Each structure stands twice: as structure tokens, then as C-alpha cells.
Amino acid sequence: MKRFILISVALLIGAAAWSQQALVPGTGLVSPEINPDHSVTFRLFAPKAISVKVTGDFQNGRADMAEGKDGVWTYTTAPLEGELYSYSFIVDGIRMLDPSNVFQNRDVATWTSIFTLSAEKGDKGWYYETHDIPHGTVSHVWYNSPTLKAERRLTVYTPAGYEGGKAKYPVLYLLHGSGGDEDAWSDLGRTAQILDNLIAEGKAKPMIVVMPNGVWFNKAAPGAAVNMFQPSFANSRSQSTAEIEESFPDVMGFVEKNYRVAKGFANTAVAGLSMGGRQSCQLSLHYPDKFGYVGLFSGVTPPEGNEAAFDKVFAAGPKLYWIGCGKDDGIMVNSRKLKAFCDEKGYPATLYESEGGHIWRNWRVYLTIFAQKLFK
Predict the structure, then answer these.
(1) What does CATH list as the number for 137-371?
(2) How confident is the model at residue 203 (pLDDT cuts 50, 70, 90)?
(3) Secondary structure class of 197 (helix, strand, coil)
(4) What are the backbone dihedrals phi and psi of residue 178, each rounded to the nearest 5 degrees, phi first?
(5) What mean pLDDT is predicted for residues 220-238?
(6) In CATH, which of 2.60.40.10, 3.40.1780.10, 3.40.630.30, 3.40.50.2000 is domain 25-127?
(7) Domain residue spans in the chain?
């Protein structure tokens, strides 16, 4: 009996020690460190490594890090513009996250370390950061979809003051792209930060933003889905938009029943990126009297064969039909076709052409621009 008690005590002490070790703060290194000239220094303690590189969207390719006598490898970038950046280390050919940086996000199935940099107030990076202003709330909620015969999850942003007030708010339905889920816009897209900052500045109207899972055969993001699937483009992508179109009234019905929503054409917007842009376009064609504002970010339905449906959309008189696409994006061909069709018909569609391609760096900008044009 005494032996059992001693073993039990030893196990408890070991477990406590392990728990305390897990709570020890970080590595003691500052990485990344944003310098006064807006360059960024990365550091990694790897005394036994032969080769350490850093790779990220702040540059092309991989950069060699220099080893110091203390076993700390370092690399400093050139001065950077305000933006959200992602990166990782390559240690002797093995990719790893920055152990000194708690900020990470997931794109499809890949985790990366991230940081935001703001060179001046009002630049892109500034809108992606959290400031000392009133903040909205991001919630993950489940709804029943009779059309899809499933319980499914939504991410919902409500603006500052929603919980304690009685006002009704317009709604933006915001759809993700291929490989994404209902977490994509809140994590990668910085939706809450962008809306909080725009609303605090008076540049955007307070609104509810509903971010559904746009893949009809997936119920929710990893960790929430019952089947605990591993995300990939194959299992997080829907080539068909029909199921989303047919089931979208389930989403809208749940939101209008459970949130203080200002209903109607003038108070309802839909937008999305890539696959979600195509879905948004199809939703506008399928329900031309539902969405007074439509945003297509690097994703459109070509006008060929859909002329009559587009005629109905513009006959309903949308307040904004906004297309955003990068000049290096393969979707630009169809974006320009749709714009040319609208111009020929005299329909008031806007095409915003940015630099770059099919990337989150563009989609965050499109949301920032589009949100300022809604419900005014």
C-alpha cells in the first residue's frame, strides 16, 4: 500500500512539473521583431542546425539565416509596407513554425506563423490590427439546414453595442473560397478587425457579417466537424454551386430569426472570394430580388449563356455590383468579360483591378473597400 502511495505521489509530482513546464513563456527570443525602419528581424535558437532559412510572403523564395555564436540564427528583411505577413522556418530541410511567435493561422491544411505591420495609421496593416476602439463579437453558431439535411456551422460577426442594444442591423453574407470553411474569413481575412476599425472611423455602417461554410458536403471547420476531417482542396471545395443556392434560404432564415436583422433588398449584401465569389454571383442570379449589394472577389459567373439571368439581376436595381480582381489573376479574363457585358447593356457594375493574383492579400483589401460602400 505504501509503495502504491509513493508511486502515485511521484506521478503527481511529475505531472505537475510537466504542467509547469508547459506554462513557461516561449523561448525568451523576440521573433519577429519589427524595427523602427519597418524591417523585420527573425530569430531561431537552433545550435545543432546546419542550415536555417526563412520563407514568407514578404519576399520571393527562401532567405538564408545567419548563425551567431550563441546558437541563435537571425535574418532581417528590407523595410516592409503595412500588411499581414505569413512565414515559416526551414531547418535542415524541415519546415517549422516560429516557436517564439504565438500568432498563427491556417490556410486549408497548412499552418503558418503570422505578424501584422503598420507603417502608418490607415495603411493596410493598420486595418488588420486590433486598436483601442469598441469591438464587435465573433461567434460560432450551429443552424439546421432542412435542404441539406444537416446541422451546419456559421461564423457570425456582430458589431460593437449589439448585445446591449435593440437596433436592427443590415447583413453581409461573406463566402470563402476553395479549401476554406467558415473560419477562413475571420482568421485569414481579418473580418472583425477590418469591420471594427472601419465602423469606429465612421467609414462603414455597423453591420452583421455572416460567414457560412460554403461547401455543402462539409458541416464545419476542422475541430468542429463531427467527422473531424483533414481539410484539403478536394474535400473543402464544391464545383457545383446548386446546393449552396438551394440551401441558402436556410442560412438567411436562421439569421433573420435569431438576430436583430434589418430585412430587405436594401439591407442585404452577399460577397465572396474565388469559389465564394462564383457562389455569390450565382446567388444574385438565383435570387435577384434578395441582394441589394453584390461583391465578387476573384470569382464570377461568365455572362455567356447567362444573359437573361443577369438582365433580371439589374432589372431589380442593385445598389452596388462590385467586381474585384488582381491583374495577374486567371479570373481576370472572366471578370473583364462580365464588366464588358454590363457596360454594353448599360448596367452599373464596377470593376476594381488591383496588382497581384489570387491571394488573400488582395481579398482583405477588397473587403476593406467593399464594406465602406454598403448600406449607404
Answers:
(1) 3.40.50.1820
(2) very high
(3) helix
(4) -60, 135
(5) 72
(6) 2.60.40.10
(7) 25-127, 137-371
